Every structure is written in structure tokens, then in C-alpha cells.
Amino acid sequence: MAALVETKPRAIDIGALVEPDRVHRSLYTDPAIFDLEMQRIWGRAWIFIGHESQVAEPGQYYSTMIGRQSVLLTRDADRRVHVLFNRCAHKGAQLVGDRCGKAKELRCAYHGWRFDLDGGLLGIPLEQGYDGTRFDRTSPEANLAPVPRVASYRGFVFASLSADGPDLQNWLGGVASSIDNMVDRAPEHELEIAGGVMRYEHDCNWKFFIENLNDMMHPMVVHQSSSLTARLIAKKELDPAAPTPAAIEIISPFTESYAFFDEMGLHCFDNGHSYSGGKTSIHAKYSDIPEYNALMEKAYGKERFAEIMSVNRHNTVFYPSATIKGAIQTMRVVKPVAVDRTVIESWTFRLKGAPEELLRRSILYCNLINSSANLVGPDDQESYRRQQVGLETQGLDWIAMHRDFGRDEDLGGGHTYAKGSSDLSFRNQWRAWKRYMIEGAR
Amino acid sequence: MSAELALHHRVSQFLFREARLLDERRFEEWNALYLDDGEYWAPATPGQTDPFNHVSLIYENQLLRKVRIARFSSPVAYSLQPFPRTAHLVSNVMIDRHDPATGDIKVNSRFLMIEYRRDEQRFYGGAYEHDLVEKDGALRIRRKKADLVNCEGPLQSSRVYF
Ligand SMILES: [Fe+2]
What we know:
The structure holds 2 protein chains of 2 kinds. Chain A is α+β, with helices and mostly antiparallel strands.
């Protein structure tokens, strides 16, 4: 008897949709592609989970997502960090319902099974009912399931749903140095999440956000209305002899020239990672904080301090799930929800041992640039939304990534360099995307 | 009692006028309601006690309000095309504190902002806290705080003042 609706999986020829210098529009709009991405990219890559300082004390937990998988970051009584699937080992109810907290044990809201923060089963009500049955209390299946792979790089916890693949540090490759530089900026060589989180819902595909980060051809167009206006108002309203307010220092560089963004440069690495800036960036001209400089010199010595501060990067992308700005100590985390829905979280870091003024500047940056209610973020979001709608519209099937194609500089070890205005970072992300999607099919 | 009623009436009318100026896009007049060091604040977490050590959806002084307002008329502010249309409803107005000596008045109220832009209608609601000061017979804003009930989000783009 024939089924009422025939549900034959549609065969998609992934390889034919991604060319080295152009991609097919359906990759941003097709729900079937999104489903495959959740399995083959978000189900295999190292995904950013959280920072160890979010679970600084034993008993603390933080709930988040790896693609569609609800997971928990926990710290057990022995101070070890775990990433566990957030579902009871009994009937599968989501175990932790709030975002974060602290508890001696995790108790399921349904039948009261109790678990340790390391995932181990602690107790079952009326446990003798299982005596002599196939249920084995000592089996790993009685515990909360751990996510297959978990690793931390200098406090940044990543996890992978796949049991095999490169280790975290190898996978990070050349972008690990961006984490190093952010951590090195702390006089006590340590970071701490502080200042809360902003959660911004984007009505678009996750890849628009992650591609935009090192798109150096957009700021002077997209942010002209806010950055140029800020420059004009500052000129009109402020005493030129007085120090420039930090807010103006933050917004103004978004309308630097094409030459400035070219000069920043683009560094791309295997697995889709990249950073822009290096010697200079839009964060390079912030006013000095003398008290901080003194503390850093004391901690590192003059020479090493100068070396740390000479690294000034714009966005570093840990493809596909996160991006940091070491020079202003902020991080954004990508949470894909549906083919046309993504939540972006913005976090800020305290540099341990630094004056509070630095955290306050990071917070100010986040408010001005990353907030859903401010001037800069909504203009970016408008561009992504227009792309989402535009690419659902037929007319042309291919998206060009030709700018400076073939003119990349190969620096060896999977490291390529191009001037800032190059499309290199898009091509590099799509190269990784294609590899994940094809290898993941095997 | 009548002095109390009169004050309540005056304060309520001030809040309604403030909301109306936003809805009628008379942003310069709206900004003129603030003291020179007046602040607009929309926290990003419930019970947030300060705007410096925690992120905020909006925390603006006079200078930043002037930037936002000037941007409203920029021909290249693409996220404002079309410009959102709003209706701010203010209610449950209660005067929490009044110091006749200094002219300081603390007002608590509830608000609902209906926003329409490009085929979509959205609702934002929560509590307002107005720190007002009476100077030379006129009310001015020292600080307006808009506590959205869903301030932790996830929130979609918004461009105007709650
Ligand atoms: Fe942007």
C-alpha cells in the first residue's frame, strides 16, 4: 500500500554547490542544507561551550547548545570541568531548565533521579524496584552521557559531538594565538567572564553573521550612518582640546577608509578560521589607560608588554561557533536555531589584575556595537536579513567571492594572507564548509 | 490631598507627553526634556543596579542621544528604512518619592510599546522609572530607565527608544 505522502530524502550534490570562488544561494536558504549542517559541521567541529570562569566553583553549571543538542557545562567537587548532555538518563527529560546555577546535585524534575555534577548517578527513588532486572546501576548508561570530546584552551572550553577528529589545539591552529593574546593582556595571565550577556536574535542564516566578521568591505557602507554621524556630532558638540570620549573612540573607526581596512589584512587558516588586523585594527587608537600600562609592565617587563600590545587584531573567527576581539576583550557566540534564525550572544571578559576601567570599556563597546537596540548591530542585521530575503529570490543562483581570487599569499602550514578587502575569508570558510559536509557524509 | 493629586496629574501628563514625542518622532523636543547630564538607560538584565559593570541594551548620555537622533534622518541608515512606527502606552503611574526641597521626584510606571516596521508588529513592555527634577516650574529628566520584561532576550533588532 502506498503511503499518503512519499518521503524520499532529496539527494543534494553538495560538491556542486560550492566552487572555490562562488557558492550557490540555496546554501543559505534550504532547510535540508541546514539539517545537514547540524549533523556534519555542528555535529563534528569543536564548538565553543563556555569559559571556565562561568563555572568557577564546584557545583556550578551552565546550560547551552551544540547546534540542536542541549548540553551542560559543569564543575564537579574535584574542580574538574565536564560537558554533559542535558537530559536525564531515565526517561530523557531535560535535566537543567535554567541557564546557570549552583547545586550539590542535579535532580530530575520528573521522577527525581539524582546525579552528581560529573554526571554520575547518585540515587533513584524506590531503587529496589530495579533489582533483578536488566537495568544496571553501574553501567555508564545509568549516568548522564558526556559529550564525546571536551577540551579547554587557556580557559576556553570547546566540545565536539564526534568521537574522532583533530585535537583542539591542532584544530585551532593559527587562531589559538588570538586567545593567547587576549589572555596575555591580563596582568595575572587569566580571564574571567564578567558583565553579563546580551542575546540577540537574528532572523537570518548563521553563516551571514560568521562571514560578515571579516568582511572588510562592509563597515564604511553599513555603518556610515552611525559612525559618520558620531564623528560629525562629536566635532560639533565637543571641545577639541578635551579628551575624546571612549564612545566616540569606539564608533568612529567603523568609517575608516578602504585603505585602512586593506592595511589591516586578513589571515586565514584551515578549518575555516581567520582573523583580520594584526599590527593594527579599528581598536588600535583607543586612549591609553596609564594605570593598566604600569601594572602590565610590572607583570611582564617593558619589552614583553610592548610585544603583547603590538598585536592588535579585529575579529578572530573560530569557525563555526565563536568569535573574539582580543584587543577589547569581547566574545560573540553563534547559536543556529533554524535555516533563517540564529541567536548571537555577546560576552565580555575581565582581565584579571587590570583596573576595572578595562572591563567598563569592553562593556561600553558591547553596548554600542553588539546590542540589539543600538546603532551598529541592527545595521549589520539589516544587511543579513536583506541577504536572506534576496537569496530566496530567484534571478541569479551564484554568489560571487571573486575579489582578489588567486592573489592570496601562501604563508605555509595552511596559513594564507591577503589584504583586508579580499574575499579570502569567505572562500576559506566555504572550503572548510565543503570539506565538513562531504567528509561528514561518509 | 489636592496638592498630591495635582502633582500626580502633572507628572502623568509629563510622562504621556514624553511618550507622545517619541511616537510623533519629535526627537529633538524629546531630548530637550532631559537635563544636560540626563541619562537614558535600558538594562540588559532584571534588577541590574548599574550601567557600568554590566552590559545594557542602551545606556546613553546627551552626546549619544544626539548621535542616535541625528542618525534617524540619515539617508543611509538602512535599518531605518522603513522607519519604525510606534505607540507608547504609559500607565500605572505612581510617585514613589517627592522631595519638595530639592524638586526630586521618582516615578514608577508600566509601559507598552507597539512597534510596526516592514510587515511586522512587535511588542515591548515593562517598567519605567523616571528620576525627574522640578526646576523653575518645569519638569526635566535626570534619568529614564526602561526595564523590559524580556530584557535578557533573545531580542530582535530595535532602533528607537522604548
Ligand atoms: Fe558590521
